[in-house]
Amino acid sequence: MSRIPQGSTPRSQQTRPTVKTALVPPASRSRASSPSKPAAANSPATPRVRTKSIPKSPSKSLRRASPVEDVPVPKTPALSIKEAIALKRAEAKKAAVKSSSSGGNFDTFEGLEDATPGSLSAKKEEDDTLELGRWSVKETIDRARSTGSINLASRSLPCLPSALFDIHLGITPDPLKSVPQEPPITISESSSLRSTQRSGPSWFEAQDLQVLKAWSNDIVEIQHEISLFGSLKIVDLHQNRISSLPETFADLTALTTLDLSHNSLTSLPRNIWALPSLTSLNLSHNSLTSLPFGTPFMHGNCSAKSDMWSTGGFFGPVITRSTTPLPRLQCLDVSFNKVVASAIDHHNFPSGLTKLDLSSNPIAAENTESATLVRALGSLRNLKELHFARAVISDDAFPASLASRDPSPIFPALRILDLEETQATVDAIHAALSGLKQTLEFEFTKDEPPEDTLRILVGKKVLKEPWEIEAERRARHKSARSHGSQLSMSSLRETLPAQDPIKEAWEIEAEQGLLTEGGRRRARAAAAVATFPETASSEQKRSLLVGSMPPSMPNTGRSHSPTVNLNTSQYYNAPTQTLTLPPSAPPTRSHTRSVSLAVSMLGPSLSQGKIDIALPTPTLPIAIISAQPFAQTLKTLILSSRKLDLSAVLPPATGESAAPLLPNLEELALDGCGLRDTITVAYQGEGGSSTPPKLTEGLIPLLGRLFPSLRTLDLTYNLLTSAALRKDVLVDLIMASRDTPIPRPGLRHLRLRGNRITDLDGFQELAEIFKGHRAVSDWKLEELDLRDNEIARLPAELGLLPLDVFLVDGNVFRIPQRKVWEREGTKGLLSWLRGRLE
């Protein structure tokens, strides 16, 4: 027998070779292994323990069937990354429990990687990152190379990571004084598994960084190498502790949005006011004391010209600055700072400002130049919102001669002036701004103010819903109406003694004989006779009293109508400047004498289709309406369901060169009138009589000519066809015009529901003006209602129209399907139509 060397094991006594299998769950592993001989643990988390094998006899070893290597291992299903990570975590926890229970036996560890300082905190940060479902800092920086956008918000960063400059620019920034030692950026093992599946972008796929968001951190200082990111357009650094910015920060000339709010800034880089593309600047909640807009443009300062950043070499980025202060700035927020009026450069305000917020600033703390500041702001032609809420400002900033001192109008586009919780008063503000072209409104509400209305917020802010404001207006109107009716009744009877009891309205009407239709009609006729000129004959007055129309009336001009008085609360609503004529329809019965056509004072018979015989029957009685005293200020005209006489009666000399009859009319309702593409036009002759109809004109061109200030046109449920919607007609009706003799503000709402429109060729040709550019200054239309028509096809060019409301339900076209606009609304429908053009 040959001797076996000491320390070796016979071949028959050697352990079986280890079979490496794929990573499987513990349950699957227990089924794959033999119950009497558990498989050896090959996981790095399980320590390997050497055991002595029991020697076996050669005979038993020869009786074995085959080596273990030849035993087929059952295939296990492949695991996903999440399952593999979860399994690794479970094994690591088990290994940690075993190591702690082994009494500190360090022989069970294969290495000392977990014993390095700071590894526990790094692992905690990586585990938190995984639990939050976001990438680590280094992975976020790597992925930004392919997206051009990076978000490092809420990471507790003391500064912008140096890895950002190293990975994107290949440079190492200079160390910051506020951060002597930057914390390292580590990456977890699970994150490395994810990163191995997708490597970084190639050099030709990488994108320049355009969006940088690092808000809600602990950043105190910014590296001056930030200027090398010349493609940055959006920078958001709010909610940090930044006390100053490097001068090179103003070299980011591609910036469009900059948010530096909620920091500790006391000053800004000099050239930040010369950024050429900046549109939004938020500097709120800082410690700024001045706004020197013109600093980069002072004498001897060459900052406004092309400049080159010094990098130690000849080549460097060329920086082109603007020649005027922030030429594209629209929104500037400087609220909650320490800015006074004398520290604001009044002569160099950005000319394109539309919104300026100076709230919570000591504007008039020094009691100087506050009026000069307000006057300088009034010269901004595009300013729409001006906020001074909770600022130190008083009535001295708004002198009584503010609106009349300058030859040019101030605040031409202002819509909101916020002076809440200041020392300003309503009387002083109203006296200072009463000369503006806008209508002043002192109501607090969330809704946008109407066009040509300036909403002024003074005092304690108490928001009201629109229905509350409307209810208050109706209550005031009702009280004024009841007061006026009491006065009119008192003029018809003798004054009651003071000791008489107060009577109800029906008792007073009963005494005056106003409970019947005939009595009320005679009272109205008597009131009309009282307005007759003294030259009227007794026959004319008698004819009016019996209800017949006088044959001729003297020509008394357009001061008022001698036969019809519409200036009553029954038809005209003075607070809202609205005139509503009751509906009219042909009699449905053959015996018309048995039915009274007179309408009551309270209007209950309007729903029964009755009409007032004292009112004109034409659908458009413009000659009578224009003769009323409120014609020059009328804003809303309601002529719904007037079908008795489908014609328009106009006063003489109402051609295209004549002055508009209702110059301020903004809303016209002609719904349910049965109007067609053309309408019969009759001109009122001398003496108030009308000539026979001799002219037929197009309905829509006539409306555009008579009402140039129209904003809303309601033609629902009529008989209009596609022939009435030609391109030239739509251009004259919809588009705004400032160069014409009668300026047009432009139509905003066009409602054509329930007509006989079959095609939209006119709108298709009109949409051609939007090809090549999305915005047309003369286009004001916001709503187009084409429901319940017979439209067979929606042209794809309609997708170019910038509409807020586009309604097409109830037509006969089948493409696109209904779900396109039911699910995505107007924007989805217009987007679908634009997609058909591409």
Short description:
The protein is an alpha/beta fold and 838 residues long.
Question: Which labels suit this protein?
Answer:
838 residues, alpha/beta, Leucine-rich repeat, LRR (right-handed beta-alpha superhelix), 11-stranded parallel beta sheet, 25 strands, 10% strand, disordered N terminus
Report on this structure:
By secondary structure, the protein is α/β, with parallel strands linked by helices. Among the domains are: 21-47 and 85-101, no CATH class; 330-464, Leucine-rich repeat, LRR (right-handed beta-alpha superhelix) (Alpha-Beta Horseshoe), CATH 3.80.10; 466-489 and 505-515; 570-586 and 597-719, no CATH class; 726-838, Ribonuclease Inhibitor (Leucine-rich repeat, LRR (right-handed beta-alpha superhelix), Alpha-Beta Horseshoe), CATH 3.80.10.10. Helices cover 24% and strands 10% of the residues. The chain has an eleven-stranded parallel β-sheet with strand order 1-2-3-4-5-8-9-10-11-13-12. An eight-stranded mixed β-sheet has the order 14-15-17-19-22-23-24-25. Strand 9 (355-357), helix 8 (370-378) and strand 10 (385-387) form a beta-alpha-beta unit. Helix 5 (137-147) runs parallel beside helix 6 and helix 16 packs parallel to helix 17. The radius of gyration is 42 Å and the shape is globular. It starts with 25 loop residues before the first helix and ends with a helix. The model is unreliable at 1-74, 103-131, 188-198, 302-315, 487-500, 531-535, 543-562 and 590-611 (pLDDT under 50).
Number of H- or I-type helical stretches: 19
Strand percentage lies at: 5-15%
Please count the beta strands (DSSP E, at least 2 residues each). Answer: 25
| Mean pLDDT over the residues | 74
Q: What general outline do the C-alpha atoms trace?
A: globular
